[in-house]
């Protein structure tokens, strides 16, 4: 879509405001809204100015002037505003017109350009399965003398004896008992269907939705794959619509990986493949799980660089509350066909040559999608470039339930880092694959590590409520 076509769309839809958005380091969207009457062709040529020093992890106050450059291919009508508003996602430039090397969306573009220049293929396709919880109530506090959180859901297992409902209706979702039940156990069919309707109206192709494994309203909506940057745009749209539809229903949605203790967390399993001019490159009939040698090398790159990757794909302290043994979250750095206990799974059910793909199951939705998808692609391309054989490095294939292996057998399997700090250590030690072709800059890596270290420290130095249970009587 050209700038002129966007201007015509504004007239056709009687748009009153245009919302220009950009994405920060953490993957959160920010916006500046301009009356549609003030949006002209020059707006798309010159961009919209903003203060970069007010965005964490961006610029110092002495170099704060930055510019949002609108991407006319990203537009959609906001379904939630009272006044008709068109959303336009932007790239970030410096005042001299250069792409800003800390802009996540620009990094995604550079990753796609690097793929094309590498000669490996013309496009990488991504499809994230981003899980979330829908709660009725959330409260939390972290202060000098108090620290607490509380979440609640009408369908939660802990509410079988709750009286506040005016007569408990029963049909609660048991712990780990929430995978695809029908109503009345699944009490959120209509909420998810409304989310799907809004997603479809905003341009996404939604494939299905369902209740997920955990109690208390865990859900998943799957939308169709697309190229790297477009999929990251779609995931931002997905989260925006999920959050706001939940609010319309008087509820709250969270993509936090582990909001509940003792039940499954929310992951973001990422399906990915490479094509060249419409031809799939990951398929080879008769290979392991019908994978080509290129696909196996891509897996080798993902698993070899996984400790560093996880600093970007699982970038929160809460991520490592999910990445523990005993749940479906994969902590073991192996690959397998159809096996959900492996970090990399190759789907084999009803898969066509064009649908042949690998699934990296470790990530979660605290990740910035532009950075996470770019990092995964760069790791996979490094595996292809260096012909990294995952089997030769001891990464499998593993076609048994890893959680049922003996302790001695498990010792032979490498695991993901145990904390955000460990993952950041790995990223500091192993990031040359990210800087190939200038996709990620050294400055970006150093700034990102510093930014995330501050988050880890903020959690580490605070008193935890469970410490009172353990130590108060010492």
UniProtKB/TrEMBL annotation:
SUPFAM superfamilies xrefs: Glutamine synthetase, N-terminal domain, Glutamine synthetase/guanido kinase
Subcellular location: Cytoplasm
Record keywords, A-Z: ATP-binding, Cytoplasm, Ligase, Nucleotide-binding
EC number: 6.3.1.2
One Gene Ontology molecular-function label: glutamine synthetase activity
Record-annotated GS catalytic domain positions: 104-474
Residues annotated as domain GS beta-grasp: 13-97
Recorded superkingdom: Bacteria
Top-level EC class as recorded in UniProt: ligase
InterPro entries assigned: Gln_synt_N, Gln_synt_N_sf, Gln_synth/guanido_kin_cat_dom, Gln_synth_cat_dom, Gln_synth_gly_rich_site, Gln_synth_I, Gln_synth_N_conserv_site
Reactions catalysed: L-glutamate + NH4(+) + ATP = L-glutamine + ADP + phosphate + H(+)
Family: Belongs to the glutamine synthetase family.
Protein name from the UniProt record: Glutamine synthetase
Lineage: Bacteria, Bacillati, Bacillota, Bacilli, Bacillales
Protein encoded by which gene: glnA
